[in-house]
Amino acid sequence: MFYFWRSYTVALSGSTTRRERCVGCSHLFEYEITCEATGGGHSPFFLNNAGAAASAQKRARANLNRALNEAIEPVHCPACGIFQPDMVQVLRERRGMRYEPNKYAFERIAAPVADAWRAACAANTVESYTRFIEVWPTFSWHAERQIKGLKYPPHLRKLVSSLFWIVWGALVLFIIMIIAIFIGERH
């Protein structure tokens, strides 16, 4: 017996506003969380395509609601600069258990992120970008890209890649030459 079906997948995205009360200063602040989720439906023998599509939509909506309810986005308190305990845990999962994000709370409220980024870019060193990541961990993507560019410049990557292919080609030619000599001696 043959079995055939049609699968449906629905992808949804949504956002919600989360309200937090700071454990350090009791300041009430809000931030927005955005999530994406998918859901699937299955129609055996193409008998319930509409039902499978509706099921995929329903599952995607349920998964999105669950993701929005469970998501924790690290956002520092705008009044005192600290991250809340559940946010600290998320940051430690990303940056390592020894990372202490609240160590830099004063620096986060002393200067806006844009000023800190401009200062890191002006210095343009691995150390300045690393320091930026320590103080502003939620904005680390750009700094990590800059560090990668400083450590492994594009022309160096291109040179290493070219050398790799040259060595690989020389090795292949050497093996072909050894095989040719071996065959020539046998005849």
Mind sketching the topology for me?
Elements: E1 5-21, E2 28-44, H1 49-70, H2 85-95, H3 105-110, H4 113-123, H5 126-135, H6 140-151, H7 154-186
Antiparallel strand pairs: 1-2
Helix pairs in contact: 4-5, 5-6
Give a quick summary of the entry.
The protein has 187 residues and is of the alpha+beta class. It has helices spanning 49-70, 85-95, 105-110, 113-123, 126-135, 140-151, 154-186; strands at residues 5-21, 28-44.
Explain what the structure shows.
The model has no long low-confidence stretch (mean pLDDT 92). The protein has helices at residues 49-70, 85-95, 105-110, 113-123, 126-135, 140-151, 154-186; strands at residues 5-21, 28-44. A two-stranded antiparallel ribbon has the order 1-2. A hairpin with a 6-residue loop joins strand 1 (5-21) and strand 2. It is 56% helix and 18% strand. The protein folds into two domains: 5-70, no CATH class; 85-151, no CATH class. By secondary structure, it is an alpha+beta fold.
